[in-house]
């Protein structure tokens, strides 16, 4: 049987998957472990967490299949440590509660990026429904195209955050 991940199709997350992805901290753990497996200790250090707190989140991600445990290795002082790597499954999930956790993860990550290294823009639009759908489709196709390209382990890692939403800063238009 072919999984949605194998054919590149998004699917609705189960309740457990949606709960796992509803945490900005868990999304940051997935990002940290996307290209390099990290132990619980390394994850805790990278995020400034207590190792027990990190382990709680790691276990949730392992239980839902978003992280996989690799072969144990010897860490500092010969202790047995388990490295974890992101499975990439979260890309193929659609959740009704994911937007706030995505924003939470983005804000935490962008706060650590020096101002000159940020490339941000905002754009106000007025589009008819058909053009709005065209914009959504073209944005999705572009992002999916870059997602599907082979990852170059030697390339510098970058992050992309895209948000399209109704503009609530505009005053309502008056009727003629």
UniProtKB/TrEMBL annotation:
Enumerate the residue ranges of region (Disordered): 150-176
The record's listing under CDD domains reads: HTH_ARSR
Domain HTH arsR-type span(s) in chain numbering: 16-107
Mind telling me which Pfam families this protein's record contains? HTH_20 (PF12840)
Superkingdom in the source lineage = Bacteria
Protein's name according to its UniProt entry: ArsR family transcriptional regulator
Species of origin reads Ornithinimicrobium pekingense
């Amino acid at each position: 049987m072919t999984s949605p991940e194998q054919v590149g199709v998004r699917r609705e997350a189960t309740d457990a998957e949606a709960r796992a992805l509803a945490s900005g901290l868990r999304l940051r753990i997935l990002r940290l472990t996307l290209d390099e497996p990290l132990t619980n200790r390394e994850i805790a250090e990278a995020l400034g967490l207590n190792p027990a707190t990190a382990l709680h989140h790691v276990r949730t991600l392992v239980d839902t299949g978003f992280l996989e445990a690799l072969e144990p290795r010897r860490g500092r002082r010969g202790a047995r440590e388990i490295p974890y790597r992101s499975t990439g499954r979260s890309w193929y999930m659609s959740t009704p509660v994911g937007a706030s956790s995505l924003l939470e993860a983005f804000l935490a990550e962008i706060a650590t990026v020096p101002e000159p290294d940020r490339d941000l823009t905002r754009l106000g639009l007025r589009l008819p429904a058909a053009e709005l759908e065209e914009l959504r489709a073209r944005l999705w196709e572009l992002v999916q195209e870059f997602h599907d390209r082979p990852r170059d382990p030697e390339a510098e890692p970058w992050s992309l955050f895209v948000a399209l939403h109704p503009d609530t800063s505009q005053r309502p238009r008056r009727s003629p």
